Amino acid sequence: MKNLDQYKSQEAMSEQELEASSRVFIQAKFDEAKKASWADQLEKKYQTERTTTAKIRSIPFRAIAVAASIVLLLALLPVLGLFRDSTEDLLAAYTVENPYPNQLIRKSAETTLAELRVSAAEAYNQQQYALAIQEYQKLLQDKQANVEDLLYLGLSQIYEKQSADAVATLEKAVLQSKQEQRFEQEIDWFLALAYLQNEEVGKAKRLLEKIVANQAWRAADAEKLLNSMT
Predict the structure, then answer these.
(1) End-to-end CA distance of the chain
(2) pLDDT-based confidence at 48, cuts 50/70/90?
(3) Is the pLDDT of residue 11 over 80?
(4) What is the mean pLDDT of residues 203-224?
(5) Given 3-state DSSP classes, what are the helix, strand and coil percentages for the chain, each rounded to the nearest 5?
(6) Which of 119, 153, 180, 209 would staple 136 via disulfide (CB 3.0–4.6 Å)?
């Protein structure tokens, strides 16, 4: 402080003392400015890093929160029934949009009975269900119908919306399938659809529950239908 006071007054100082004091004063001012600059830079840098770090840390949290919300919503959608297919839509999909194919068409048969069966199968596969019904009923009249004939007659009646007739035909097919020991699972499934189409919901549910319990043919679709009915 003495040198500073002498420097300000420039009294009782030699030329050498004045020069030395000037250097000391200039260095002190330089150091002071430099420290201020560093402090300012450090403060700015620290604030920037802190802000950036906060942003980086907050982004994953927000992303996780959004993702968790989406997962929760998707989990609740089946509970809320927003994605549940209606019984009517499922019935239409299983009876109209995807007709069950007839595998009977083979080489030409020599007998009238076999020709009639092939003719009925051809009409069915061409989705001429009214004609197929007529052909299969001829087999019934002659008491020559087997379980396969009854199955495709019942299906033709389902596709033609002849629900009551389809139920009666497929119930006969159930008994016939036990004798012939074939098409049991297929007939159960389509009989359940015929019950639904004929608004016999109780019978349909019992048969669908049997299909699910036995993990029989179309068990997954049977379970989906049951869920749509609750």
Answers:
(1) 95
(2) very low
(3) no
(4) 97
(5) 80, 0, 20
(6) 153
CA Rg value for the chain: 45
Q: Kindly state the DSSP code that residue 115 receives in the 8-state scheme.
A: H
Q: CA-CA distances (angstroms) from residue 10 to 21, 28, 30, 32, 135?
A: 10, 18, 21, 23, 132
Q: How far is CA 201 from CA 37, 48, 174, 207, in A?
A: 86, 69, 19, 10
Long-range contacts of 104-109 (CB under 8 A, 24+ apart): 104/148, 104/152
Q: pLDDT per residue over 99-150, tens digit each? A: 777 765 544 444 588 889 999 999 999 999 999 999 999 999 878 899 999 9
Write the single-letter amino acid at 92: A
Q: Is the pTM higher than 0.85?
A: no
Contact 194, 173 (CB under 8 A): no
State residue 79's pLDDT score.
Answer: 47
Residue 85 burial (CB count, 10 A) = 13
DSSP 133-181: HHHHHHHHHTT---HHHHHHHHHHHHHTT-HHHHHHHHHHHHHHHHHHT
